[in-house]
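Expect sequence, tokenised fold; for instance:
***
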Amino acid sequence: MVAKDPLFASWSLKKLRATVFNDIWPEVLFFSLVATMVVMVSEWTPHKLHISNQMLTVLGTVLGLVISFRTSSAYERFQEGRRMWSNIMVASRNIAIMVWIHVPSTREDKVNGGHKPLLESVIEKKSIINLVQAFSVSLKHFLRAEPGIYYADLYPLICFLPRYAVQPPAVPTKDDLLPLWNDTVEGDSVFDNPTGVTSARSGRSTTTLSDPNNGEKTSDGTAPRRAPSRRQKAFDPEQVLPVFVSDQPLVPAWNPPEVTFWDYFGFLRIFRPVIRLIRGRKTGDLTVSGRKKKKMDVESNVPLEITLFLSSYLAWLLRNGLLQPAIATGMVTNISSLQDTFNNLERIRNTPLPFAYQAHLRISLWLYLFLLPFQMYDAFKALTIPATAFAAFLFCGFLEIGQEIENPFDYDENDLDLDQFCLMIQRELHEVTAHSSPDPSTYIFSAWNQPFAPGDRRTAEEMVADVEHDYHKEEPGAGLDSVRRTLLQSWRDVDNLTRK
């Protein structure tokens, strides 16, 4: 996403593509040619192509208001999309904190007696938090019309989930495949390759599903990491994810349309379909003006499936008495927030502005710009040409901006940076799991804590050790009164010293 002020930032080809210059040049050129025709005929022939400008001001004002409403409504969708992603960040963080802090790690083994290993509980909680991270990643791919789970940043987070509706020793069939594993990028199910996996790097069959890494280990005992793609040589956030060889080729986490010559020189795109026809290549993915067609909307059940697993985990915690009711209510609320946000983002993604409104507005604008030079010539003469070009640039530009940002989830330079949102969630979740939940007494009563400052700048360790101080008086209320006087003095000092 390009968001710098163009007046103070250095220009580049990427920033040029972030503008709408390449998208509106045919319209600007056409109306400039109309203005040129009006000026040439009026100047070089006895005919004066001039009509009354009575309606110029009224229609221009009305059309400007309508275009402003169009742009504002599109920008509202853009801002709503950003707010929804903020909700996902908050809900993901809350769920992770509740699971990591409030779900107990020390548990009784009701079957064999004694206590379950602490490691098993930690692995269980960390795996659930990975599912929380997977929700945002799967939602990102859904909004970009990328169905399935076989992506470099999604598959490692959810590949441990069950694939079939039956349990061993029953032999699974294709009909037993769960919905999560049916919707793949290649259009083929996992069941089509049940005995081998396909390397994400080379696409060759290498091993069995029970041993996804084929026994390969590095010197530190971990599985080998994928070779970074061309884009990832300098920035490879997927290198921190688990490494598994998948049964389908993994699509890169960031897979935008290829940038070509036509994207930098948009005014030549009109010749692109002709060149393709001459070369005998297909033109079905191009519009008449040579632009690439937008991806079709897709349905994806991956975010829904992940929330189902989170809900089933919550139900399991409640059945086993591992969660307090108040925390369970908070988890239900935040899981519901993820589902509501998913529905709202789906609404923004799959509900464009009605075609009748867009068509009527654009046709009205074209008619206005077509008649504009006829109304301006009597006052502007030869300046009608640049004036018409500027008006076309202004009106068509705002209209195109509204059309571009009404779906802010693709790979365009003006779209929301969904990859960064997912990485922010990933960093926050890992920060949560890095918290060790120490006993408060191990860090509160230390030499690094001055809780009563500035009224009393002694450390907590010194105050506890000084048993002769008034704080330790055993008379009813005496010690507490002394503490209150100190805190009151702290308030006076802060109130006086923090005011200008």
Q: What stands out?
A: The chain is about 55% helix and 0% strand.
